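Blinded run. Sample ID left blank on purpose so nobody reads anything into the name before looking at the predicted structure. Input follows.
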Amino acid sequence: MIYALGHGNKAEISVIEKEIREWTAFNTDEQLSFVSLYTRKEFEMFLKETIPADIICADITVFQGIEQVEELRRRYPKAAMILIADMSISPVRYMKPTILAAGLLLKPLQQAMLKKTIEEIFECYIQVKEDEDIFLVETREEKYRIPYSDILFFEARSKKIYVCTKNYEYGFYDTMDHLEEKYAEKFIRCHRSFMVNRKMVDQVKLSQNYLTLSGGVEIPLSRSYKSQIKELY
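Blinded prediction complete.
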């Protein structure tokens, strides 16, 4: 799944979304989720949610546009950022480390430049994803590339394995024993049905039989795995 966000003028964001949807349809088998934000209120409501974003197209000419883009960069440090600007704003104001734009579109939008920018951004995005330390989930419908740093735990449930992040879970067919053998350096078994990211463990409650992961997620700890958890933590 590719998560894209468009923030700015409705007409312009609609054109950008159309171009992004066309590119993904012809160049990747991953599905696209596109979220559009047209008003300051929608932007503020969005910040209260926990929605991922891989590609961000943001207009800095709207009210407090640069400040809003900086907020998006803080929220999504790894996202590829495309800025929408015009000649009235000096590049000094937005070409800076707090934004780290990967692309620029000047108003009025030109179809040829829009298409070229989208192609360049997605080529860069795909290369980064391929080089990144990721866990790949493949289903009949699509592929999900999940950075190990985003994974909290694996859970065996209803004859499937679910890889769980802070906001989402993705189901696939495998066995916990196979995952434990293959990913022992990154994850540790704590229960017949659970394997947790070693770097995500915040607390170990041996007497209460559970672990607390980053974000306050509680995972059961069974007797048979207590010794190795105790030794590690």
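Unblinding after everyone has recorded impressions. The first strand starts at residue 2 and ends at 7.
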